[in-house]
Amino acid sequence: MWLLLYRIIPRTPWWISATISFCLSVTNGFVWNRRWTFRARGHASLRAQYSMFLFTNLIGLVLNLGITKVFLIFFTGQLRHIGGNPKTIKILVASLSAVPCVMLWNFVASKYWTSARNRRCPQSAVSSRTSLVGVAA
Fold first, then answer.
1. Beta carbons of 94 and 81 less than 8 angstroms apart
2. What is the pLDDT of residues 93-107, one digit of tens each?
3. How far apart are CA 130 and CA 66, in angstroms?
4. Which residue, 16, 60, 88, 125, shows the most beta carbons closer than 10 Å to its own?
5. How many CA atoms lie within 13 A of 80 on its CB side?
6. What is the CA radius of gyration of the chain?
7. Can you give the residue ranges of every domain in the chain?
């Protein structure tokens, strides 16, 4: 977001920079959550899991933008910023202040919904049978 605000598109409203940085990070987050954090490779459909991940992160984006706006109102005393963005440092501090709440939401939603194993998944059933056979042997 800092690069977008300072270097790439400095005259664009802060919320557009926040949305672009969100879009760039969703796929990166999905890959790492799927491979490393939750190791959720037993889903029937990668597309369905990505859609769930995208949906939970869109809620996270709305939370982030809303909480950031509340902090910006608090920091600047203005509801609307006519004539441009507030100072970039205020935007970044407001955005960072929203991160803990949004991070908690994204983690819980990813762990208990997006990355939870699908009981109807054929791969899960196969690995369950395999592990039962291994225990019986």
1. no
2. 998 999 999 989 988
3. 47
4. 60
5. 2
6. 20
7. 2-124
Distance CA 56, CA 104 (A): 12
Tens-place pLDDT, residues 40-96: 555 557 788 888 888 998 999 899 999 999 999 998 888 887 777 888 889 889 989
- The dihedral over CA atoms of 32, 26, 101, 79, expressed in degrees to the nearest 10, equals 160
Please say whether the beta carbons of 122 and 50 come within 8 A: no
Q: How far is residue 97 CA from its own chain's centroid?
A: 16
Q: Which three-class secondary structure state does DSSP give residue 81?
A: coil
> 38: phi > 0 → left, psi -120 to 50 → alpha, else beta; which?
alpha
Contacts of 102 (CB under 8 A, 6+ apart): 60, 63, 64, 67
The model carries a pTM of 0.64
- Model pLDDT, residue 134: 37
Residues 47, 105 contacting (CB under 8 angstroms) = no
- Could you tell me how many residues make up the chain? 137
Question: Under a CB-based contact definition with an 8 Å cutoff, are residues 79 and 2 in contact?
Answer: no
